[in-house]
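In response to a reviewer's request, we include the raw inputs and outputs for one of the modeled complexes. The two entities were modeled together in a single run.
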Amino acid sequence: DTGVSQDPRHKITKRGQNVTFRCDPISEHNRLYWYRQTLGQGPEFLTYFQNEAQLEKSRLLSDRFSAERPKGSFSTLEIQRTEQGDSAMYLCASSVEQGAGTDTQYFGPGTRLTVL
Amino acid sequence: DQQVKQNSPSLSVQEGRISILNCDYTNSMFDYFLWYKKYPAEGPTFLISISSIKDKNEDGRFTVFLNKSAKHLSLHIVPSQPGDSAVYFCAPKKPGTYKYIFGTGTRLKVLA
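The model returned the following structure tokens for the whole complex.
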């Protein structure tokens, strides 16, 4: 196992189309995060899973966004009716708890979405 | 809502010298702080962390200092190497949440 993988690495779509991204975390990691990063900014938290349960979701995440982690392993992030403002790098990270609620997140390479 | 600020967007340092990257935050409830570095076309890579109960943590060439009263965090890299050239993000976390809040990053360039 070489780390967190994401697929696809790049996605170009037309406005109004739906897109789905996949994240495969490090196999023994029960925690999984999705982030979005735009140019000149740091990663912005979108949502968090512990095993298959989605425990936290950013209020910035509109109802066009949905994420799942059905068996507590891989996760998908779907964006419906894409808008040009959705163009960004979507990052996935996984981790295990290290105690006292802390963890170290390992990031995948990201999926770059361009909405035309 | 800029809870985490990295006011220097870029920094250039000569190889062998010390690099100091700064991070200021507004929320005194943050209890755990991480530093990540990011190379182009890759995801961020964990570098070093510090808990709010400490004021210093050291790992090889990397040392993080935490000044809770000033709500200020700094990362020292010494000696700096050309391979350290990357974008560095600080990312604190609030207790009781799983949400890490990333700063805007500082681009470090180490000149050979």
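As requested, we also summarize the result in words. The two ends of chain B are 38 Å apart (CA to CA). The mean pLDDT of chain B is 94.
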